[in-house]
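ARCHIVE RECORD
Type: protein–small molecule complex
Small molecule: alpha-D-galactopyranose
Source of inputs: curated submission
Record status: active
Notes field left blank by submitter.
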Amino acid sequence: MIEQDRIKKILFGGDYNPEQWPEEVWEEDMRLFKLAHVDTVTINVFSWAMLQPSEEVYDFSKLDKIMEMTKKNHLNVCLATSTGAHPAWMARKYPDILRADAQGIKRQFGSRHNSCPNSKTYRCYAPKLAAKIAERYKGYDNIVAWHISNEFGGECHCDNCQRAFRVWLKEKYGTIEKLNVAWNMAFWGHTLYDFEDVVLPDLRSEEFLRPGRTCSSFQGISLDYKRFNSESLLECFRLEREAVRAITPNIPITTNLMGAYKPLDYQKWAKEMDFISWDNYPEYDAIASQVAFSHDLMRGIKQGKPFALMEQTPSVSNWHPYCALKRPGVMRLYSYQAVAHGADTILFFQMRRSKGACEKYHGALIDHCGHEHTRVFKEMSELGKELDHLGSAVLGGYTQSEVAIVFDWDNWWASELSAGPSQNINYLKEVQTYYHYFHSHHIPVDIIGVDDDLSQYKIVIAPLLYMCKEGFDQKLRDYIKNGGSFVTTYFSGYVDDHDLVVGAYPGHLKDLLGIWVEEIDALPPETSNYFDYKGQIYPAMIACDLLHTKTAEALSTYKQDFYAGMPAVTKNQYGDGQTYYIATRSNDAFYEAFFDDLTKQLGIFPIINIPREIEATIRQNKNGNFLFLLNHSRETLKCEIDRVGKELLTNQSYQKGDTLTFLPYDVKIIKF
Ligand code: GLA
Ligand code: ZN
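STRUCTURE (tokenized, with ligand):
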């Protein structure tokens, strides 16, 4: 779908479900798609019941017509395999396909994304259907991608999964003795005698609910379950992928991911996908940097390769607590924001609003009124036209970053599985706080995993690196010795890959940080401590590490309580590089002060000097450099341009020193 020679523009269109409508409506759809410049449809996402009405019978008659229609109308097809929801007969006949929830309650037929990933039935019939679809439509040259299933996700706690978990553990640990050590089962006398003693960690066994999260009495077990669950679903993806790849080896394969989605380790998934695609549904109150972060995360899991924006809503979602409309201009702004961060498609859910069920009030190109005279249709067709005009200019563009932020699913899980030290420790928020500084200063960032190469970065930041996975400390040492800069925070380096404490904190990071942490004090939300930095006072919140310097110097000390005078921010020289430890959580003003200093010192500059409300990114490809400027505010803003360039959406040329005027939610793409 992306990075194919035959694709000459940013693909535009989205999820289309003609099977829910009589055929007369299809003709009208085709007329409206042309008006709106739609060139791509994602079809067949939830059609399993139609395609396989019983165990023996497959019926492709309607899909045949739909495929013919796409071909006749020159539409690219992103072809889904339809396995995101199983048919009713299958649930009736083979109840092993039904999931069980975290209380072990077996689900009945209903909802979607509802198949047990370890069900034999699912693993047999899902790839079988995918293969049949591939076999039937392999001759269609308008298929630009395979869309496997839909938004893989969730957890299952059924008996299939418990059995499979035991097998998975046996492969991983070999003996029950090793398992007991890894999970520290001597605690509370939980020693297991046999793999048959293993039960799923959930609300029936080791887990319990705390506000906003599920905690575990045995983090090691829960962590392994999360890895296993992510892997089980990934195996379902692989089975379908192999089924279609064997028949259509040249069609790239993806599945739609969900950004910062906690249950699945997307860094592992990315390795198995031909290209990344994802669905962007920000909360109504999300700020620009949170959305930007998700895009950069999705770009980062595939080492910077362009990705597909598979879904976003044209106007309104149906499932947020408050389904606010995207204001005029915002759909266009969000579309280009995706492109600015690496997307080569702009696709939507959905093309036509359904008549019934829970998504009937979800936004669509074609609304319930059925005609083109709506605000949303107008905005979408203008965007469609603009994308025709933009052509292939920015396709395949890469982003060059000098800053990397580490994001790691094991750390996300582990840092939040233990009830202590504070239920307000929030991995995603912590990472986003650091990201926010760079985003608002127009400094590009790569979001990387612990397996990625560090050598190209001037600075690597690993917020809440609670778990220092095997080998990562050595990788950091090599990077820092050679002149790299490294920043980490409170509650870092505490545990190994099994969530076992490795000794004095921060474990294997002690030498490179030049400190040791003796205690950690959690601060309830109504309290805070304070620390100084360069003559200013900043709040310390959530948790404070009480630490001692060894080779590091203290850049700041706490001001209150019995640990007043102990270091709050430290710096250590290590080889040719330097490391920093920020022992608490502070506010944006502190991160401003701290990173203003550090970036200056390291020669890291904004890509352009413009007001903060305007987001700025650069993508580069063989055609040149493209500066994306996005006004996220409702105000008209003006600024000076510091280089000669041509704006691609308006064809306007700029000289150095010219004034750029940004209307509310305006977008400019300047080639220079
Ligand atoms: C998800 C799904 C779609 C649809 C949209 C609605 O992203 O993939 O099928 O349900 O949400 O927002
Ligand atoms: Zn299951």
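CURATOR ANNOTATION: The first strand starts at residue 11 and ends at 15.
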